[in-house]
Specification:
Blueprint lengths: L5 E7 L7 H11 L3 E5 L4 H14 L2 E7 L5 H17 L7 E5 L7 H18 L2 E5 L9 H10 L5 E3 L1 H8 L7 H8 L2 E6 L18 H20 L3 E6 L20 H16 L2
Parallel strand pairs: 1-2, 1-8, 2-3, 3-4, 4-5, 5-6, 6-7, 7-8
């Protein structure tokens, strides 16, 4: 466990079209501290991942998930993946982020995912967080509030862009829920959402300034709390490819450069929090 404040910025492999080696090399050259990737199930893919991390001296954040539409199969799939990721001994992850459960599973079913990760985190000492993501357990602010209020050990990956989209607002009317949520956050997905979608076209564009400033205010509170508590905070810059990235009709040409936007966000956040 850390006993001092630390902020680490990670790159997303989502949308990167080159090889894993090229992704790690580019991430290192841009100044990222590490990468976040979905835990690979195949042994050869795991070996390739750890070799690239060692070669480029990068930290690791992991994503684990279930995908089946039926609860029992989904739960078993999730448990198998996260147990494997948490108990491998080659490189300890900074955290494990969970795409867990479904919005249509019952509270009792979804709670089994959280309960499992609480036990696993206690056993391994690894930070395990559940993401505020559409279609998953914490897909909307008022739904997440119930889990936060009833499960004190729940830790959160804060991707508030999804909540803005689901609630069709910048959440001005849900401040109490936000305040409670921010106290549980250990990992941030830094993408700017807006009332009509999970991703603005370009966070530097003036028309998106209100959305950008709202997200920065939330992130400021999280970082400030971790700084005061002498704890690590990790941030993934996670602007995505099409169809998260808006495109031109017919040609589907992206309206902006995904990689460049993520690097811009990384630099903005580093300057803001590590002056």
């Amino acid at each position: 466990m850390n006993n001092k404040f630390e902020l680490l910025l990670l790159a997303t492999g989502w949308g990167f079209t080159g090889t894993l080696d090229e992704f790690c090399n580019k991430s290192r050259k841009e100044g990222y501290n590490g990468i976040e990737v979905l835990w690979p199930r195949e042994k050869n893919a795991q070996e390739e991942l750890f070799a690239a991390l060692k070669k480029y001296q990068l930290e690791l954040g992991l994503l684990c998930a279930g995908f089946d539409s039926h609860y029992q199969k989904h739960f078993e799939e999730f448990v198998t993946m996260i147990n494997d990721a948490a108990t491998q001994t080659i490189q300890r992850p900074l955290y494990i982020n969970c795409h867990s459960g479904r919005d249509y599973f019952s509270y009792e079913q979804n709670k089994t995912f959280i309960d499992h990760t609480i036990r696993l985190s206690a056993q391994t000492g690894i930070t395990i967080c559940h993401e505020t993501h559409r279609s998953r357990i914490l897909f909307a602010a008022p739904v997440a509030r119930h889990y936060i209020d009833t499960i004190p050990e729940l830790r959160i990956t804060f991707d508030v862009s999804h909540w803005c989209n689901v609630s069709e607002s910048l959440l001005d009317d849900q401040q109490e829920t936000l305040d409670r949520t921010l106290l549980r956050v250990d990992h941030i997905h830094a993408r700017i959402g807006h009332p009509e979608g999970p991703q603005v076209s370009d966070p530097g564009a003036p028309e998106w300034e209100p959305a950008l400033n709202a997200h920065l205010r939330w992130w400021d509170q999280i970082v400030d709390a971790h700084r005061k508590a002498n704890k690590r905070i990790t941030i993934l810059t996670e602007f995505g490819p099409p169809d998260y990235m808006p495109t031109l009709p017919y040609t589907r040409e992206p309206l902006a450069d995904q990689w460049a936007i993520n690097v811009h966000m990384m630099q903005l956040l580093r300057k803001r929090y590590l002056p």
